Amino acid sequence: MLRLTDIVGNAADPDIADRLHDIDHDGGVERVRLSRSDLARRRQRLVTDRGTEFALLLDRSASLENGSVLLLEAGRAVLVVLEQPQWLVLRAAHVAGALEIGYFAGNMHWKVRFENDCIWIAQEGPRDTYLKRVAHLLARGDAVVLDTSDALAGGVRHLHVPHAH
Fold it and tell me: Which residues does 26 contact at the CB level (< 8 Å), separation at least 6?
């Protein structure tokens, strides 16, 4: 098994980007997709998109990020790509609902973004866990869950969200 112990650099660096571009044309760039929480792990066993297994063994001072290059040699590279999170999209029914959603999301330390008139909550666990946490808001009609494509378009397509009382 390949053992990678250093971060060579980042794909955003112009010199590295040029080398990656050339290697990618020859099909030599392998990508490993990591969640945001996995970026913080210094030791892990990983598999690239081409099936190459390797042990990542970084020292404590190393910091993985989207675009980190773990291997860069003639004809071959291993690149870290941040997985895109799944999103739970909520739209408040009124101002009081919006305030409560924002307050609640902050207390839960959820990673959020705002687009149009919606709050997008990055799911770092099972979707059902998040839905259970906001069930009281949904049951009272303070918020609705939207499909992500409709939230981006500004349209409204309510999703049926089962819940129990």
Answer: 75
> What is the sign of the dihedral through the CA atoms of 70, 76, 54 and 87?
positive
Region(s) of the chain under CATH 2.60.260.20: 2-82
99-120 as b/e: b if 16+ CB within 10 A: ebbeebbeeeebebeeeeebbb
Domain 86-153: CATH class, spelled out = alpha beta
* pLDDT tens column, 3-19: 999 999 999 899 999 99
pTM value is: 0.60
Q: CATH class for domain 2-82?
A: mainly beta
